[in-house]
Design goal:
By secondary structure, the protein is an alpha+beta fold. Helices cover about 20% and strands about 35% of the residues. Strands 1, 2, 3, 4, 6, 7, 8, 9 and 10 form a 9-stranded antiparallel sheet that branches. A two-stranded antiparallel ribbon has the order 5-11.
């Protein structure tokens, strides 16, 4: 189940609010300019699927998103718990950073956790299959896939060069909860 926990950025032990209803999550994130939508993810894709398989399965959704929002490129990240580079992939975006273009992800299997740092608050968003999240450019955030990743996400870009992470040097990400392995990862082990 998708979830949003909102914290004061100086208090990492008790959330100010918790939301599990998709409409409520979308409404709260919309207040800070973050897109969060529920899409149909009903193609038989599992973590470990190739980029070509995922793009072929969701070609209609991808084409619609690209036409509506001006995205020019797409790729896929597909990880499962036995991936040999999972620790390196996890570490890559585990610290606070931003990008100079929007970060759009459509989860078609499993789950991943975006944590956004906006105006003195921390928004921890557990994204699951069917969730589409759009993080505006310049928004500081970090992403966790847990130590046992299990997800497939379609990534859309307007400029691949603009998507390079700019790390803030802050240790804030180390002070907030990391993502626990998703229950679906256990079935894949």
């Amino acid at each position: 189940m998708s979830r949003l926990r909102i914290y004061d950025d100086h208090k990492n032990d008790t959330p100010l609010a918790i939301f599990a209803d998709h409409a409520a999550i979308a409404a709260e994130l919309n207040k800070v300019g973050v897109r969060f939508e529920q899409w149909e993810a009903n193609q038989p894709i599992e973590p470990g699927a190739t980029q070509e398989e995922v793009i072929a399965a969701y070609r209609g959704d991808i084409d619609r998103l690209m036409a509506e929002n001006g995205y020019t490129t797409v790729d896929v990240i597909s990880l499962k718990p036995d991936h040999p580079d999972r620790a390196a992939f996890r570490q890559k975006f585990l610290n606070e950073h931003s990008h100079s273009e929007d970060e759009v992800r459509f989860f078609v299997a499993g789950a991943g956790q975006f944590t956004l740092h906006i105006d003195g608050k921390v928004y921890e968003v557990l994204c699951e299959k069917g969730d589409l999240i759009g993080v505006p450019d310049g928004t500081t955030h970090w992403f966790d896939m847990s130590e046992s990743p299990y997800f497939v996400a379609i990534r859309l870009f307007t400029n691949v060069e603009g998507w390079v992470a700019k790390f803030t040097g802050s240790d804030i990400a180390e002070r907030f909860p990391r993502m626990d392995p998703h229950p679906s990862a256990a079935s894949a082990s």
